[in-house]
Protein 1
Amino acid sequence: MTDEARAFVPGHLTGFFSAHPNANSSAAGSRGAGVALSHGVDVRVRHGSHTDADSSLVALNGDAVPIGPVGGVRDALDAPDAAVTVETPLPLGAGFGVSGAVALGAAYGINAAYDRRRSANDLVSIAHGAEVEAGTGLGDVVAQARGGLPIRLDPGDPDHGRLDGIPAAPRVEYVTFGSVSTEAVLSGDTTRLTAAGERALADLRREPTAPRLVALSRRFARQAGLLTDRVADAVEAVRDAGGDAAMAMLGDTVFAFGTDLSDAGYDPEVCVVHPAGGTLHAPKQGTSTPQSVE
């Protein structure tokens, strides 16, 4: 057991998805594809200093903020007093998978700080189930655990879902205009978006390239009826300049690869594809607990 543990989890832009609800939160989830970002969340877990009655509260960039899945993670790992501190350049509710990243980082951190001795897949399953039950996402956690340009072939946690990926690591540009309520979209009729997501996934599997991911994501947003006016204007401007761009699900955010947003006159945030999934930072020297083998 240690007093403190730290983790990094990449942000995740979903380009397209299909929703697959299930009474079993481990089997529920989404199919689709997206981008793991080098811009992500740094999570610090301290042992025994969370006293607030709201188990979902974390310190996010210095402010007390409820992140729904964190309560489920604390409960699943029997750590109600675990203090979770998060630093991230990414905004909440704008399509970057922040809630899923915080949930996964908290699971990694609590496991280390409280010596829960759970496997990586167990922790991903806990964070995924907590996010599904909180209504804040369906597929970010498993994608963030993989990294790269993940393709989610099946819904659900690691025991239920297969993953593939696009073997590429392009430069990523994005511009955020605001937020979209994930809970509102996922709790409504998802028939139209699921049909569009299934078509996009089938097409991407035939041609799994980064440019194809953007093109299919652009088509998905229009066919699913999710495209916002500001993202639509940005996509049009990028295409007029000879590039391509798409909307991040679910947020009022446009993303592109290479310099396509810059070439269209925007001043985007810039990062790269994060090739690995979430990781636990190495503990400081002298904080590990020796283990005996009998």
Protein 2
Amino acid sequence: MVQKTPNSIGYVELVYAIQHQLSFGSVRNASGEFIHSDLQALAIAAKNAGGSPSQPPASITNATGKGAYPIATFTWLLLPQQTDDSAKRMALVELLRWVLTAGQKESSALGYAPLPRDLAERVLHSLPNSPELLQDF
């Protein structure tokens, strides 16, 4: 609809814009630069997002740093707080392990920037290692 409406502005995910050959402009970031969205600019935003060893960053929106695209976010997974099915719990943990390791190699082909290695490792190390620990996961 935005594409068909003269002088209109809208927002879509980068992958959608690329796949549908939509025009899109640059956006000023926290460093005052006008940045055109691409996987590298998204990766820079994720890398500069901060956080701590025990607490990954919650947001990469308006991340600081040269080349960081400001309108970006992580893709989030919502998981049940509890489940009585230990097989499902283990399957979820194994899926998350794959996402944070080998799955990162698939990101770019799908139009997403992989997580910075240190961030993926921090989240990976926060996963429980035994089925007993999964009850509160």
